[in-house]
Amino acid sequence: MNGLMQHQPLLISTLLTHAERHHGSQEIVSRRVEGDLHRYTFRDLAQRARRMAGALAAMGIEPGQRVATLAWNGYRHLELYYAASGSGAVLHTLNPRLHADQVTWLADHAEDQVLFFDLTFLPLIEAVASRVKTIKAFVAMTDRAHMPVSPSLPGLLCYEDLIDANEPDFVWPRFDENAASSLCYTSGTTGHPKGALYSHRSTMLHTFAAAMPDALNCSARDVILPVVPMFHVNAWGLPYVACMVGAKLVLPGPWLDGKSLYDLFESERVTMSAGVPTVWQGLLAHVESNRLRFSTMRRTVIGGSACPREMLQTFQERYDVHVLHAWGMTETSPVGTVCALKPTQMALEGDARLAVQAKQGRAVFGVDIKVVGDDGRELPRDGASAGELMVRGPWVIAEYFHHDGGDPLVRDAEGTGWFPTGDIATIDADGFMQITDRSKDVIKSGGEWIGSIDLENIAMDHPDVHMAACIAARHPKWDERPLLVVVKKPGAQLTRTELLGFYEGRIARWWTPDDVVFVDEIPLGATGKMQKNKLRDLFRDHRLPTA
Ligand code: AMP
Hints:
The protein is of the alpha/beta class. Among the domains are: 12-24 and 38-252, Rossmann fold; 443-538, ANL, C-terminal domain (GMP Synthetase, Chain A, domain 3). 29% of the residues lie in helices and 25% in strands. The chain is built from 17 helices and 26 strands. Adenosine monophosphate binds next to strand 14, strand 20 and strand 21.
């Protein structure tokens, strides 16, 4: 017998309809690329998102087609979040920190139909415009007065013209909640980036879970400033959470330095924020050197990379800002675990409590985690046995976009698929997970991926290189930076400077390895694969040159 309750598909547009009706006068404040502060309300957001949805329809964008953005955190980007997904199209948030070759590859792979961009990224757009295969229109996210004149972009459209040309009478369509809503790429483990294709259902369930008190803990009384970019796993879901709970949203645009963030925290009375450890270093340095205090900020979510214990301590003890350490992945939408304390840990003091908070936390409801040994068997939850972290849940991917890489899941005895994260972790008896290492060959610098394979391929193109491996070395500011380990061809005179110079123009500058070490051989496994884990152990504490 079925239950007799209403069936309403879980659709992203319903978040906006709710926010407009129940929190219509709540504010959204954005620092624009132009430098000024823009403010409007959820009511304005909803109306403009409907106008933009009308514009997408007029452009011929059909359900399921990809609408790409290259944009900072700002109100126009937020409008596109809702206009694209709400109308049944798929929002593809491109990462503007990538090289033009990578952006071109991603836009082609996603088969993007239209690309919206902030003016900051005009040079990048000019570099890709004639190369991308499927994009029919480029839209500058600005008004007529700021429209650039670019000979390489004939037919460039103006965002505000599109808004003006359409009425706010667009009616959000009702469709299957399993329809795709947005697409984010991760550089993943091997080869090309892979796409995680979220659905309306997965996004909505993730939003419910992320807002919960023991997750990101958001309410209508909050003023949320996501420092984490909207092009990075949907800013950890905060643009959706804000609409669900009716929180004021403050969007910092391109200004992510300590002073700009601090000023915005204070002037807009921000209560909670979220970002990777690197941005907090800049903020804390500014606050410390100017002897400032946070008058309203009381919580911050730190994730993307491990939060150093010292950062936890500084935020909490010196500034009375509670840190929520969280773990997630593009493949998990992203929130997987959050380090919200239970009463037993609240009773702990000093170092004992910090030691718990330095863990990545416990699974939010909906996500299930376990760690497994080399034989795939589950390891005890004893806080000591380390194995690969496996995850499952309704907002965890089942497969990558275009089925790239085949079936990523590992089945357990009951046949349930678990996603292997490539992170090595322990789980303690209270359910708190702690990452101890990473088995995947990627480098995470300031919260952004650097693909080791791309860097190795470039090195291998150099005529004097016999073999090259790229691994992560620890860095005090960026957490990790690429270190290239190279075996030269016999008799070659190649130098470090020469090899690093070889990267120029071939890759985004910040991807260039920080250092090169020349070795006689790189250890190989039984199948002839480079054993990068051995190199990582050898060079983890390699002292990188300070530029
Ligand atoms: P991304 O797909 O870019 O969100 O990156 C996901 C990966 O970042 C994870 O698999 C981890 O390797 C790493 N990561 C995310 N959060 C944390 C954290 N709190 N501590 C350590 N590593 C993390």
